[in-house]
Fold this protein.
Amino acid sequence: MTAAAAVPKTTGNRAALLVAVASMGLMPVAVTGANLAFPAIESSFAEASRSTLSWSLSGYSIVIAAFTLLGGQLTDRLDSGRMFKIGLVVFGLGSLLAGAAPEPLTLIAGRCVQGIGGALVVPASLVVATSRYPVERHPFVIGVWTASFPLGSSFAPSITAVILQLASWRWMFFATCLLAAAAWVAFKVAVDGVAPTPPGASESGPTGASNMPDFFGVILGTTAVGLLSLGIVQGPRWGWTSFSVVGVLTLALALFPVFVWRSRRHPRPLINLDLFKIRTFSVATIVNVFISVAGTAVWLIWPLFLINEWDYSQIEVGLAITPTPVIAGFGSLAIVKLTERIGFRLVLTVGLIALALGNLWFLVMLEGEPNYVGRFLPGIILFGIGMACTFAPVNAAAMVDLDVAEYGQGNAGFNTIRSLASALGIAGAIAALGDSDADIVAGVDRAFLLLLIVVVAGLAAMVAAWPKTAARQ
């Protein structure tokens, strides 16, 4: 009998899944909520430039990208429940620091601490959920777990808008701190103590010299990913041909081959590179890049356009864009069942087509004269359909052919690349929009043209490379 099957089918497995889903729902609040609050943050720190303050957005993505691989390694080696609780504590402390920030640097530091907490929560929460279900239920559990991100996104705009309307943007971060604390208590009360250890690890992790983690590989991988993120984020600000950006990207690209070489030779690498030999994992990870670039950038573009061009209030912005995450979140739950019948290929293809049409709609139809129903609503509905069919399903597709013992590292690798792509999407949106608010429509047009090209490239990769059948659906 497996450890997952040995868990009593009473409350432990369901409670673990619910807490894992709720905790993962905090991650989109950290992204979407901060993006929506960005205009208010700009007003509070009027002396700082938009480029500087954008570190409060991209800093989170950089840090979570840099440390998620380490979070996956710790999850696989140590008790997943312990890492899950530590991640929630760190995330909550980062939220508290960001909310209390007296100046931009403290805000950015708080967001970076949030990123470290998220890097622990993301891989640990998946193992917390799957390790309490038999293997044959794992595709369903992974689907529900991945749906938690768009589900969280469905509530983030409205919650953030209400907070911004009634109080300061700081309360958005205080609220995420309280939610992280509530998730910690729920896990401690309902799940902790009855949870099995992750597959392939004991309560305290394996021992022995041959099982020691690759500490040098951890430093190499974390540094390489962090430098790559830094170069991507700073490219639009410092200039892509500047000495600083070229130097940072060159150093990152020089470290990656060393990291690969080290990972090939160490018995306990930071990430098992053989995972990329699995067709579904590698293709889903590549397609994930295009989806994440487009799916993250719009949460910055929409609020800036609605506030600066159409003069919307914060609560009007939240209500205006709510249809997208609502459709994406609740649609993802239906898509989980649909993919069991028709497979990932068709679902992801339809989703990418919907995203492309959404970008094309905004590129052609959006203008300075306010017209929400005629020019904005159809576009965000298309985005909602596209995200429902892509964001959660592509994560489940990446995991579908992995062994149970590979979930921690596999999910960490996938989400590291997702975070890098999110940082790239924010950087691209900032570059397209520009620092001046003199011509918002022109900047938005440039941004949506860029995202349209990105999504079409993702659709081409999906159609060309995805296998017609996966080993396990």
User: Anything to note?
Assistant: Residues 91 and 117 are 4 Å apart (CA to CA). The radius of gyration is 21 Å. Residues 1-12, 197-210 have pLDDT under 50 and may be disordered.
